[in-house]
Amino acid sequence: MPLVEIENLSVSFSSPDGQVQAVRDVSLTLEHGQSLGIVGESGSGKSVSLMALLRLLPTQSATVRATKLRLDGVDMLTCPKNELAGVRGKVASLIFQDPMASFDPLFKIADQLTETVLAHFDVSKSEAEQRVLSMLNRVEMPDPNRVMSSYPHQLSGGMLQRAMIAMALICEPKILIADEPTTALDVTVQAQILQLIGDLQQETGMGLIMITHDLGVVAETVNDIVVMYGGKVMEQTTVFDLFEAPRHPYAQALLASIPGQVAGKRKLREIPGQAPNPLAPPAGCPFHFRCEKADAKCVEQMPVLQRFGPNHATACLKVMS
Amino acid sequence: MNNALELRGLNKSFYKKQGGLGLFGSNLVEHRAVDDVSIKIPERKIVGLVGESGSGKSTVGLMAMRLLEPSDGAIILNGTDITKLSSDELKPHRAQMQIIFQDSYSSLNPMMTLWEIVAEPFVIHKMHDTKTRRAKANELLEIVGLGGMFANRYPHELSGGQRQRVSIAHALALKPKVLIADEPTSALDVSVKAQVINLLHDLSDEMGLSILFISHELSVVRSLVDEIVVMHRGRIVEHAETEQIFQNAQHPYTQSLLDSIPVLNPKLRKRRSFRSQEDIAAEIPKLPLAQFTSQSNPKMAQIAHGHLVEAIPMEGASS
């Protein structure tokens, strides 16, 4: 039984200007202990897909439809509201881009982490503190005793993100969902945090979903990859295949536009234009406005995800032919 | 070659109160955010200023603009020392140097249309009549790729990349010689990042703009700048032509920045070892005295033409 099963997921939000179609017909699975990167730019639907899986979207404005939405075997579509927190807490932990916003500024790190332990396990307060301290050591926190008695504002961004990871892992989740965990960090700290997440995934055997706009991040951390654009899956493959032989024109253009790959002062290959309007997504391929290979057919016809070999699927009319 | 902008021995100290009770007995502790920084930006060239948060790189940019007063040092813009000019005297020189920031959302007035934003410098400098202002604003928006319908829109209607273009159009209004770009692409998506970097390429080539490009990402500066200045804890630790930094970095801090660039090939994934502050301090190269030739900065050794590195002088050693 896979850890995550999402089938034909669509999410839309009602707004004063109409229905915003954030996610359109997305399917993906993650087996236990595997790692998956979801890559896309702002508004591509990468975060919303996972929020929908965890049922964390506001019920007033968000409409979630799917043929299957399962987390560790639990049907999240029919799971009663009062059981959701328990399922999430046992199975999944989330870390976000801005660790400062995830901590309460009024409480010490020790209080916030022990609170998490006490909420999930039947242990004494001193036992909980012991677990927190050993987890801080495990995430290679410098000077963990001092960190325990510090307030969030007294720590650097990198230290806070380590504390966040400690908090996420202390409940021994089956899956860690990291949403742009290093975007706000310096490059040297980013490299350290990514290595740490990779190490912990290997050690604990948990599943990992890394949501990011940065192909450099996934190149370093995950095995499988989903490239999203305009709320749809454009390409689904292994990270090795994506970097070696990307098939979708969007994936190709994304890889080519990464700066600093070659020596010398030169212009970069850019992707002209901008992402489609989610209020009125095009009938055809969402990338056709910006695609070099697009023709009249691409404007009208929505490409479906087509398999090429066991580990590679692409949604592009030009790749089929 | 003439320098469009020269920063000579810039220093900036901030003071923090420490100890004591209330008004009495507390003493001020100096924190030197920028320590003896000298950078020359030749005409039509792009210089990258690289370092992590807290390295002092943005403070240098703000001091160059005189948005922050240096504690010591001089700012020479097109041959004129502007360090001590009063705000009235400074105004004509300000037109020659402009700045853009990372967060274009907070630097654009939400109540103004795009053409009003771009034309505002003409209002401040009392140039042109309204009709000409509007025409010139449209021209500028055209240059940054926001022609036609965009002039009457408001900032909130734009994407991040488009807003950064408006900031650039606004900065170009007075035809500056120098542009200071403080992390202008850090908040942008990869595909849009390339658009903004290419726009800066064009502006440098076609309008002869000299640019100080401040960034924490070495990979972004590689394809854009002619020289790289690396700052660490307020000081310059290495300065060389771009590829010299990539091929032959000598300072341990520069090397740690290079090591942290993600490898874009999953097959070449490797475990990294990270340098601590102590490692960096211990690995600073020791070089023979003869290489410390720089008059302006006695801590820097010259290891090749135009390649300066912070080093520890060693007497009598041969290179």
Automatic annotation (TrEMBL), chain A:
Topology versus the membrane: Peripheral membrane protein
Domain ABC transporter stretches: 4-255
Localization per record: Cell inner membrane
Pfam family, one: oligo_HPY
MF GO annotations: ATP binding
Domain of life, source organism: Bacteria
InterPro entries recorded: AAA+_ATPase, ABC_Ni/Peptide_Import, ABC_transporter-like_ATP-bd, ABC_transporter-like_CS, Oligopep_ABC_C, P-loop_NTPase
Family annotation (PROSITE patterns): ABC_TRANSPORTER_1 (PS00211), ABC_TRANSPORTER_2 (PS50893)
Key words of the record: ATP-binding, Cell membrane, Membrane, Nucleotide-binding, Transport
DNA-binding keyword on record: no
Transmembrane segments: none
Homology family: Belongs to the ABC transporter superfamily.
Protein name in the entry: ABC transporter ATP-binding protein
Source lineage: Bacteria, Pseudomonadati, Pseudomonadota, Alphaproteobacteria, Hyphomicrobiales
From TrEMBL, chain B:
Keyword Acyltransferase tagged: no
Stored SUPFAM superfamilies: P-loop containing nucleoside triphosphate hydrolases (SSF52540)
InterPro entries cross-referenced by the UniProt entry: AAA+_ATPase, ABC_transp_ATP-bind, ABC_transporter-like_ATP-bd, Oligopep_ABC_C, P-loop_NTPase
Gene Ontology MF terms: ATP binding
Membrane-related topology note: Peripheral membrane protein
Coiled-coil stretches noted in the UniProt entry, renumbered to this chain: none
Residue stretches making up the ABC transporter domain: 5-258
Keyword line: ATP-binding, Nucleotide-binding, Transport
Origin: domain of life: Bacteria
Record carries keyword Metal-binding: no
Subcellular location: Cell inner membrane
One Pfam family hit: oligo_HPY
CDD domains: ABC_NikE_OppD_transporters (cd03257)
PANTHER family per the UniProt record, alphabetical: TRANSPORT ATP-BINDING PROTEIN
Name of the molecule in the record: ABC transporter ATP-binding protein
